[in-house]
Amino acid sequence: MKRNYLYLLLNRPIAIMLLVGVEFVFLGNLKSSDVLILISVILAAILISIIGYILLKVKEEISLYTQFVLDIILSSAILYLTGGIESPYFILYFINIIVSSIFLFAKGSFIVSAISIGLFVTTVFLRSKFRMFVPESFLIFSSSIPSEVIFIRSYTYSLSFFYGWGFKCLCFRKIYTGEKEFTGDKDYIE
Question: Counting Cβ atoms within 10 Å, is residue 132 exposed (0-12), middle (13-18) or buried (19+)?
Answer without folding.
Answer: exposed
